[in-house]
Structure formats: C-alpha cells, structure tokens
Amino acid sequence: MTVSLCLFGLMGYISLPVSDLPNIDFPVIRVQAFQPGGTPEQIASSIAEPLERHLGTIAGLQEMTSQSSAGMLSITLQFELSRDINGAARDVAAAIQAARVDLPTTLRQNPTYSKANPNDPPALILALTSDRRTMPDLYDQATNKLLPRLAQIHGVGLVQISGSALPATRVEINPLMLYKYGLGFEDVRAALASANAHTPKGFIETSKLRLQIATNDQVHKAADYQDLVIAWRNGRPIHLVDVATIIDSVEDVRNAGYYNGKPAIVAQVYMQAGANSVAAIDQFTREYPTLQNTLASGTHLAVVMDRSSVIRASLADTRMTLGLSLGLVILIALIFLGSPRIVVIPAIVIPVSLLGTLGFLWLLGYGLDNMSLMALTISTGFVVDDAIVVLENITRHAEAGLSPLNAARRGAREVRFTIVSITASLIIVFLPILLMGGLTGRLFHEFAVTVTLSLCISAALSLSLTPMLCARLGTQTANNTFTHFVDVWHDHILRVYARSLTIAMRYPTLVLLSLPLSLGLTWTLYQNLPKGLFPDEDTGMLLGRVMGDETISFQAMERDMATVQKQLLQDPDVADVAGFLGGRGSSNQGNIFIRLTDKNTRPDTLATTISRLSQRTHSLKDARFFALQRGAIRIGARPSNAAYQYSLQGSDPQELYRYTQRLVTLLSQEKTLMDVSSDVLLGGNSMDIHLDRDTAARVQTTPQLERWTPFFGEVSKL
C-alpha cells in the first residue's frame, strides 16, 4: 500500500500543472469597436451605449467599464469568479449580434471580443526584427504567419501585433486641386471603388470550350493608380495623380515599434482566465524553431519577456525550501531520538505523506504552485509530529521489555485517539479558510485543502506504516558516543528549564502581568505593520508608459519614445527594452516593456530602480514616463498607470470631467504620492464646424462633405 501511494504521488507530481498561483483570475472579456474619424462623444453615444445596453443583460456580469477615444471603443466585462469564461464568451457574442441593429450603418466591421484581461501583463512578448526587410513586410509576416500559430496555443486569449500596419496604397488628396477642377471627395472615392471591383465575371461556354473570364480589376501598386480617370473636364480626363499623391505605404502611418532602440514588430501574448501560462509557453518553446523557419530569410524572432522563467524560479525556491525543511525535521528527530535507526522511520513516513498529498491534488484537479508547495512545507511539521508521537510511545513499551511487534500494537492502540483528535482539531483550524469566499477564498482554498489532505494522510500512515516499521526495524536506542552526547545535552536543557521555572513560580504577579503586556505589544505591532493582500514580488519585469500632452504630434511622440528608451538602456539594471506607439490606441501614449537584469546582480530594490528610472526621464518636456510593477495578484480589469486607482462616477459627463481634474490636481500635491494621472484626456485641440443649413441648402451642399471645397467658407464657421 505504501509503494502504491508513492507511485500515485509520483504520477500526480509529473502530471500536475505548474503555475505561480492558484486560478484566481476573474473571467474577463474585452470588446472593441473601431470607427475611424469618430470623436469620443460620437463613439460613446452611437456605439458604446447600444453595446452596453445589450451586454449589461448577461448573467454573472460583475463589472462593466468602457473607454471611448478618437475612433475606438473598448469595453471591459468582468464576470463573477464562478462564471466559466467560455460560456461568458458565447453570451457576449450573442449580445454583440443582437446589438448590431442599433449600431450605426457606417461601422465598417462588427465589434470583436477577446478572452483576455487588459490589466494583466503579457505572458510572452516577442520582437520581430530584420536588417533587410521593411516594417510593413515584417508586420505582414507577423500577422499572417506568427499570429495564427500563437493564437492556436492552448490558453491564449489574445495576440496583439504592434509596431506597423498592413501594406496599403495611400492616396493623399490635395483639396486645392479638387477645388480647381470642381471635384469632391466622393468623386475620388467612387473612382477608387470602381477601379477595385474584384468580383467574379463568370464564364463563356461554347459547344467545344468553356472559358473562365478573369480581368485585371484589382489594382495593387501605387503606379497603377496614377492614370486612373476620376472625371472629365473641358474634354480632357482628370487623372488621380493630378489631384493627389499616390504612394505605396501602410494602412496607418502612425505606428512605431522598438526593440532595444531599433525598429521592430512587437507581439504580445495574453492568457485567458484560468489558463496555464507555463504550459502555453512550453508549447511555444517547442514550436519556436518551426516558427523561425516559416519567417522570411533575414528575419529574427526574439523573446523579450517570458513569464514562465519567473514562475519556474519561484517554484524552484519553494521546492528548495520544502526539501530544506524536510532535511531539518529529520535532523531534529535524529538529535532528539538519538538513534539513526529510529530516525529512518519518520524519514520514510514524511515523504510518503507528502507524495500521497500530491497524488490527491492531481485527482482533485489542482495544480503545483507556490500556495500548494507552501502548504506542503508547513505540513511537514504536522506530519512529523504524528510520527514522533506514535514512535515515542512504541519506544517506551519496547524499553519496558515488550517485543517489537507487541510494543507496536500496544503503542499504536494507546495513541490512536490522540492522533485522531489532533488531526481533527488542526483540520477545524483550517475550516474557516475553506469556507472563505471571493478572491481571498479562491487564493487560499488550495492551501487549506493541501494542508487538510496531508493531515489526513499523515494520521492514517502514523497508525499503520509507522507501527509496521517499528515492528520490523525495532526501536531500541543505540548506545554510542553520539547518543551519550545527546543525553548530556538533554539533561543540560532540562536543568536550565527547571531553574527558569523556579524563578517564574517565585514571582507569579510579574508573570501574570506579562500577559497583558504581550497582548498590548502584539496589538501595537499589528497596527503599525504595513498591510496588503499579497507581498510584492520582484519578477524582473516592469511595464512603462510614456504619456504625452493631448496636443502632441505623432512625430514628437516618436522622439520622446526614442529618448526614453535610450535613457532606460543606459541604466545598469536594464537588460532589454521593447515598446510600441500608435496603432488603434491613443496617439499620445506609448507602451514600454522593461526586462531587468538578474536579481542577484542588482544591488537595489525594485522600488529604488523604479524611482531611478523615473528620475532619468525627467528631462522630457512634453511627455511623462510611468513605470509600474505588476503584482502577482491583480484585482479588477481596468488598466492604469499605477498600482492604485480611484473611479469617479456621475450622471453629467462635463461635471464628472471637471471634478476629475480637480481630484488629480489635489492628489498631485500630496507628497506621499509619486505619480498621479487620469485616463480622461480632454486637453487636446479640435476643430468644431457649425453648419449654416440655410446657406448649405441654397448652394445644394449636404453635411456629407461631398462637394464642400468651393463653398467651405460660405456654409460653415469654425
């Protein structure tokens, strides 16, 4: 039975999934919609409100937040811990489909969703670089070759590609030339659409032949667009090149990606709630050679950050602690029992109990993480207590003259009630943890279950395996120099204890007063100690953000991003820096991922390193740099630039914005706070056009801006 239990535990140890913490992630789904050219107010009223109305009816929805920016909407849905993320995703897809009739017809594509928390750090960050390929070419490879393979990895919720855009032909129209020829933007749009029909043409069939018809109705290069006729004036054609500049470029030129200061395409891999990051990254590692070979020659795929290395290092430290505690427990047992032969018994019982616990953890569907390993480490003391209690009582009967078999029978029978009662009382201690709810209960549930299982297995082995080993191996204490030294040391300890006990009994009042004094000191220390849900862990990774002024241009943000990366790479604690700017996010915010050097080579703490990096970037004039350490536990799904955040709510948006700015100003004056920012960005300049509808009707102009150029000053006021 013992061998079977050991094999069961080894199977569990091999098969247990590995992670840093138990599954405590809230099921989070992110919904995004894009409306190029739309203002935040238009996005909020025409897209956000209909979507929120339908998404708000989903069962188990705990929190819904939305953020509207220029041309983009992001809605984050956080569900209850008990909600399955796949079932929630099906409900979200149905709600998006139901909301389609309420969304504007100008929306080019349906809103999309992803099973990833935007507040989580990426599990894997990759950088695609090349000395011979252009950035659009690299982005095309990342989108068509890299992204599908990464998305197929089990547990991946979102793969985000940043740094450039897909190749495209850009037509930059000159409004003055349109005015000269009396044309409008709609004329150019219609000409471009007619030149790219790309529709099936059918076939011609005769009695002998069947001919499939194919035409060159799809234009791919900028040179093919130059001679495109958009209108006729005075008997001659007006070509597209006469009113516009046509170049081969990308869909969105306001994109930039960096890796250690060089242009790169950055790929971020986010995991869905409950997924195993280590298993997913192991799968990527196995497929990495194949991915590298599928890319074009001269292209290199670099791993910037890998969360699995931190998780493995943390688990390795916990395993070492478990092994060290096991060795120390056996050493203490050797010192007090005084016989290496007797110590063999707890040295067998303790590992068997821990292995059996791992087997049952596998059976219950738990994982191998810091909480379960910590529970096994604590359980080592409980397990050895049971074994020593039984062993000591059997040894007492053996020294009284009973045979090993009879001593084992009588000794185990006498302490069985003690073992059962001790085990039950310890399990009752951990019962409140088992019954806790919410995030804290989910975090410590696996810890309590692991301790409970180890206590039950320890009690069973103490009343079965320990007596059997005592009956077969014997419990006679050896008589040698080592045991003589231990006996002398025990006698010395007993004499010291006897003297201290005599003094304590001589002054009973003073001993009684020590109780309230101890309680008062304990309460004082409890009040003054810093408090938190989980200690901060130095993972060697920092998330940075460069936030520019609302009026800053993309070119100025590029310069600030280059300056920040150069200053960060000069720090001795920084190993690699990757980041991106632009894309479908805000144009005045750049994201930077910082990988620090090995923890053993860094003399400063993580807080000191963050403060030093912030001081290095104080030279920025029109932007600010924020550095943030993502903790092991992240509550909520709303991303921010700091570890703490306040949310303001109100019915009047203008009043809410006004009080938000007042709160930010007052918090910035607080000396204990280092960085204060807000996600409300309303300081940028905009152009507001008020139409004179009477004049517009007189000159037959509509708000669709088809032919405004000749009459722009007459029908509008800026």
From TrEMBL:
The chain crosses the membrane at residues 320-337, 344-365, 415-435, 447-466, 507-526. The keyword Membrane applies. Pfam families: ACR_tran. The keyword Transport applies. Keywords: Cell inner membrane, Cell membrane, Membrane, Transmembrane, Transmembrane helix, Transport. This is Acriflavine resistance protein B.
